[in-house]
Prior knowledge:
This protein is α/β, with parallel strands linked by helices. It folds into two domains: 25-191 and 275-423, TIM Barrel, CATH 3.20.20.70; 196-272, no CATH class. It contains 18 helices and twelve strands. The protein has helices at 7-19, 30-40, 43-50, 57-64, 112-123, 137-144, 159-171, 190-195, 207-210, 213-220, 236-248, 253-259, 261-272, 283-289, 302-310, 332-343, 358-366, 376-407, and strands at 70-71, 86-88, 91-93, 97-99, 127-129, 149-153, 177-180, 294-299, 315-318, 349-351, 371-374, 422-423. The strands form three sheets. It has an eight-stranded parallel sheet. The chain has a two-stranded antiparallel ribbon with strand order 1-12. Helix 17 (358-366) links the parallel strand 10 (349-351) and strand 11 (371-374). Helix 2 runs antiparallel to helix 18 (376-407) and helix 5 (112-123) runs parallel beside helix 6 (137-144). The protein is globular. The two termini are 38 Å apart. The model has no long low-confidence stretch (mean pLDDT 96). The chain binds flavin mononucleotide. Flavin mononucleotide is lined by residues 48-49, 62, 100-103, 130-132, 152, 180, 297, 319, 321-322, 324, 352-355, 374-376, 379.
Amino acid sequence: MSTPFSALERQRDIYLQGLSGQRPKIPTDPVALEKAAKDKMSAEAYAYVAGGAGVELTVRRNRSAFEQWRIEPRMLRDVSQSDTSVEFLGRRIPAPILLSPVGVLDLCHPHADLAVGRAAAELGLPFIFSNQASVPMERVSQEMGAGPRMFQLYWSKSYELVASLVKRAEASGCDAIVVTLDTTMLGWRLRDLDQAYLPFLRGKGIAQYTSDPVFQAMLDEPEEEGLVSPKRKVNLQMLKAVFQLMQNYPGPFFQNLRSGRPLRAVRQFINLYTKPSLNWNDLPFLREQTSLPIILKGIHHPDDARRALDAGVDGLVVSNHGGRQVDGAVSTIEMLPAIKQVVGDQMPLLLDSGVRTGADVFKALALGATAVCIGRPYAYGLALDGEAGVSTVLQNLWADFELTMRLSGCVRAEDIVHGGWLGD
Ligand SMILES: Cc1cc2nc3c(=O)[nH]c(=O)nc-3n(C[C@H](O)[C@H](O)[C@H](O)COP(=O)(O)O)c2cc1C
């Protein structure tokens, strides 16, 4: 970013635009943001992004649990200056806000990960590339210049594919590998089930695979017996799905149609996607593949945090996948204090799932998080206005956080953890 970010300027800009009758295109209220995005997105896309597992108790708890904590602001502390930056993995990032990995972003906007990468890089906030991205990591990295980035790995059934993705992440300038642990299979997501819609079957969200040399080599091999096949009765809907599949696969449409490769790619993907047998003994394999820091995403039990410390990993994301995996699971903010107690200052702790406001960021830092990540809000910004929409969502959260911090009597984000700012 050319000029340093200022919450007061952001606030002033919005009010000044109001003088000429302009209201913000991207609502600052997170509920209104979601509503505006819903109005713009297809029913299937909105269901996929907004939905959670089961009856979405955990989605709601991810929000309501923040209410358990209250900030106790302090006065007369000279808050004329402030510093929202924090250190993360040896880098100074300008605000304790990262972008969680979100798959299939082209459901929100055709520029998908490219738009998100540009917005994040412009603000200097780290973007975690999804394993289920719509655009290969190399292309997004190119757009991001020196912007900080990481790669989120879904551990597939193929060790060769895992190794290849990790090498590509290194070559793409990623600062860390974030291994998501909570998706050894897909959660039971009612909204998607009732629309009978899974984007991957249409060739969406598999760009990291179709751009991978190991995956491509697998497509040259004779197909294994018994691979799950998406083939079904041929009707108009089916033809539409096949058309989409051909379009989503790299290369010319008719060549894809002739070769049948896109369909094979989907079958191969379904076969490999996750590894239900994943366990602690798999981690040394990853350590052998890379010298990059390894961060575990999806930890929300203190015993697992202890185990992660013993395993020598470099950081954790306290996450329940935005409530998309286990309905009824605890919220992350309520588990954070116990995890912080185990981990202390031995490794950075990120937290996601339900972070929507500056106060949420402040509370997470006060309870021991190094920084937070957000998922759905930036996807909604993307749906509403592409790169500009993502940037606006991030800047609004940043401004809200900075003002909350200063108005609470704290000038440095890194001092929040030592402040005793919360009451319950
Ligand atoms: C549409 C969507 C797709 C997601 N895809 C991934 C993914 O590919 N990998 C992953 O580790 N997490 C994924 N997540 C989970 C996010 O990384 C993050 O944990 C979650 O969105 C945070 O909660 P929030 O949306 O309430 O901010 C996805 C979340 C959403 C909403």
